[in-house]
Design goal:
The protein is of the alpha/beta class and 409 residues long. It has 14 helices and 16 strands.
């Protein structure tokens, strides 16, 4: 892996950091863009924009493009600046989504675009061996795909309760992890590379805020339905964590008419009823698939199996019912739903939308219920966002940390 860019010593108060973040975000949203336009968009003076753009270019986060921005005129042409993207040798971030049967590795650029990805199956692997196994696969993946580009670090996203400040997985029932220092484990295995961790529902929500629809920056609720079911809330561009980073635990919301037993001791909980694991077991019991594998159910539906399609539509309506409840509680600008079948086939998203709007008391607009902007690439983009979001919030500090890790690695 190539070394991270060397970072000059930064001085001054928090205003310089805030200004750098404003410039970087303006270029993310509008680039390629002239510095004069950045001043107008950010509310900063042209001199402040020029200073910050110079610093961010020196750090490798921005680059000047060869052509002028807009029409010509008297004097020096306006040279546009843009993010220094991976395709032109700019910095990249690694990402890993740690799932229960498999993990997804990814490499993304500063716009959250996936440059490479790989699926790592590990069904049946002992949970204690998972971090070392994934780290080894990730190390080989990064060595194969980073090339000469600066590597900023790795973001890791997974289900359960995750404390990003401590870098620990507080609780992940499916993996039987409790207070596991995952960020430190992965960083050691990756020779000191910076690693950040977060819950995957929050990571996808932050990805939508950073790279997706503008409405997400006002307010959104995200419902994640996979082997783990959880949620996230974002207001004014910030994803809520709550005390102990426990916000978003919706696994035990009650599902009317469901009698499926839950490990918590009750029946009819959302995760026990609608998770991938639950759907796979139902499909096996109904004779739809030869083994309890959710992805076989999706494949069967895609191949025209009406029983599989009916089961996925049943799940979609349960998800829509939960979405309606979340709409009524938060009334967000967007209700984001990550559900694998709906990512692949918009008909299942329509089922979710229909149930949500039919049952919600406050939402009569189905277009407020959407899938993630990244589509099937949602998981690697979200994992990379765990690392990139702090960069866009405080780029000077983030690059100092990258440089320090590189010196100590």
């Amino acid at each position: 892996m190539p070394p991270a860019p060397q970072t000059p010593r930064m001085v001054g108060d928090g205003r310089r950091e805030a200004n750098a973040a404003l410039v970087l975000r303006a270029v993310l949203d509008h680039g390629p863009v002239a510095r004069s336009a950045v001043a107008r968009l950010s509310g900063l003076s042209p001199a402040a924009v020029s200073r910050q753009a110079t610093d961010l270019t020196r750090l490798g986060l921005l680059r000047e493009l060869p052509g002028p921005a807009g029409a010509g005129g008297v004097g020096r042409p306006r040279i546009p600046v843009d993010l220094h993207l991976g395709a032109s040798g700019g910095p990249v971030a690694g990402g890993v989504h740690l799932g229960v049967p498999a993990s997804t590795l990814g490499l993304v650029d500063l716009r959250g675009r996936v440059l490479a990805r790989r699926l790592v199956p590990h069904d049946g692997l002992a949970p204690d061996r998972l971090p070392a196994t994934v780290a080894a696969e990730l190390r080989a993946f990064l060595d194969a795909h980073v090339g000469t580009r600066p590597l900023l670090g790795v973001g890791a996203a997974l289900g359960g309760r995750v404390d990003p400040e401590a870098g620990t997985v507080v609780r992940h029932d499916a993996l039987r992890w409790h207070h596991r220092p995952l960020a430190a484990e992965l960083s050691r295995a990756l020779h000191g590379l910076p690693v950040r961790v977060d819950n995957h529902a929050r990571a996808i929500a932050q990805s939508e805020i950073l790279f997706g629809r503008p409405a997400a920056r006002r307010s959104l609720v995200h419902l994640f339905v996979g082997n783990v079911v959880d949620a996230a809330l974002g207001i004014a561009g910030v994803v809520h964590h709550g005390p102990g980073s426990a916000a978003g635990d919706v696994a035990h919301l009650p599902v009317p008419d469901s009698t499926v037993p839950c490990p918590c001791g009750r029946s009819g909980c959302l995760e026990a009823t609608a998770s991938n694991t639950a759907v796979a077991r139902t499909a096996l019991r109904r004779g739809i698939v030869p083994e309890a594998d959710y992805f076989l159910v999706v494949d069967a539906a895609a191949a025209g199996d009406r029983r599989a399609d009916r089961l996925l539509r049943e799940r979609a309506r349960v998800v829509g019912r939960a979405a309606a409840l979340l709409l009524d509680i938060a009334n967000p600008d967007l209700l984001l739903v990550t559900e694998y079948a709906a990512l692949l086939d918009p008909e299942y998203l329509e089922e979710i939308r229909g149930a949500a709007v039919d049952l919600s008391y406050v939402c009569d607009d189905p277009e407020r219920v959407v899938g993630p902007h990244a589509g099937p690439a949602t998981l690697p983009v979200a994992a990379g966002t765990v690392l990139l979001n702090p960069l866009f919030r405080a780029p000077l500090r983030a690059m100092r940390e990258v440089a320090a890790a590189d010196r100590n690695g």
